[in-house]
């Protein structure tokens, strides 16, 4: 597909900031397609015959970033597939994607915007670690996620600070970041998201 056929918004924020929660709502109301890099990686990890299964598993447990080639390819495939599926129904339609939890390292950001397409803007959900930790430990009671435990959470926070925040700063310097306080309850975070998106997207 051509970059002209799509609008991409990156959705960033620390582990447990509420990226997935907000994306689900935006999908319902604005017709975005939601692609979570973490979800795509977990699906690839479980795909029989995947050559990346063990690599992904280790990275996720340790809160480390999977090599960008893997993630960029998964995202590109998912975008292509979404467009292909809808082609018969609405030819020429411009597709809107929320890319959740990506890019979380500078090399991924540069690569994606070079080989796939530039992002229109970055939604950044800002949340204190103590709040995120509480949410993740609570979710961990039932989520079955291999990284929702105290030790993995600590590692995820560290990677977020050291590796992912520089990506947010990079986009901030370019004036492409919409920063939203993710501490209030989901409804209020969503209201603020709607308000700010309307200002930017019209
Ligand atoms: N919750 C949400 N919003 C709330 C609110 N406002 N008030 C109270 N509670 C709220 O929410 C987390 C929990 O909090 C839920 O229980 C929710 O109900 C509650 P969620 O919406 O799931 O938050 P989210 O930000 O999506 O948290 P998630 O755990 O998914 O964030 P991560 O960024 O850690 O996870 P992700 O799946 O993106 O990545 C996992 C791993 O994959 C990474 O650590 C990394 O190892 C790997 N990865 C890569 O290597 N490369 C990539 O590009 C992407 C991921
Ligand atoms: Mg998520």
Automatic annotation (TrEMBL):
**Region labeled LID — which residues?**
138-148
Cofactors required? Mg(2+)
Provide the top EC class. transferase
Question: Which reactions does this protein catalyse?
Answer: UMP + ATP = UDP + ADP
Q: What is its EC number?
A: 2.7.4.14
Q: Which stretches of sequence are listed as region NMPbind?
A: 36-66
* Gene Ontology BP, a term: pyrimidine nucleotide biosynthetic process
The reply to whether Nucleus figures as a keyword in the UniProt entry is yes
Q: Which keywords appear in this protein's UniProt record, sorted alphabetically?
A: ATP-binding, Cytoplasm, Kinase, Membrane, Nucleotide-binding, Nucleus, Pyrimidine biosynthesis, Transferase, Transmembrane, Transmembrane helix
Residues annotated to bind a ribonucleoside 5'-phosphate: 42, 64-66, 101-104, 108, 145, 156
Q: How is the cofactor bound?
A: Binds 1 Mg(2+) ion per monomer.
The residues that hold ATP are 16-21, 139, 184
* Compartment(s) of residence: Cytoplasm; Nucleus
Report one GO cellular component: nucleus
| One Gene Ontology term of the molecular function aspect | nucleobase-containing compound kinase activity
Q: Which family does it belong to?
A: Belongs to the adenylate kinase family. UMP-CMP kinase subfamily.
About its domains, the entry says:
Consists of three domains, a large central CORE domain and two small peripheral domains, NMPbind and LID, which undergo movements during catalysis. The LID domain closes over the site of phosphoryl transfer upon ATP binding. Assembling and dissambling the active center during each catalytic cycle provides an effective means to prevent ATP hydrolysis.
Q: How does it assemble?
A: Monomer.
Function of the molecule: Catalyzes the phosphorylation of pyrimidine nucleoside monophosphates at the expense of ATP. Plays an important role in de novo pyrimidine nucleotide biosynthesis. Has preference for UMP and dUMP as phosphate acceptors, but can also use CMP, dCMP and AMP.
Q: What is this protein called?
A: Uridylate kinase
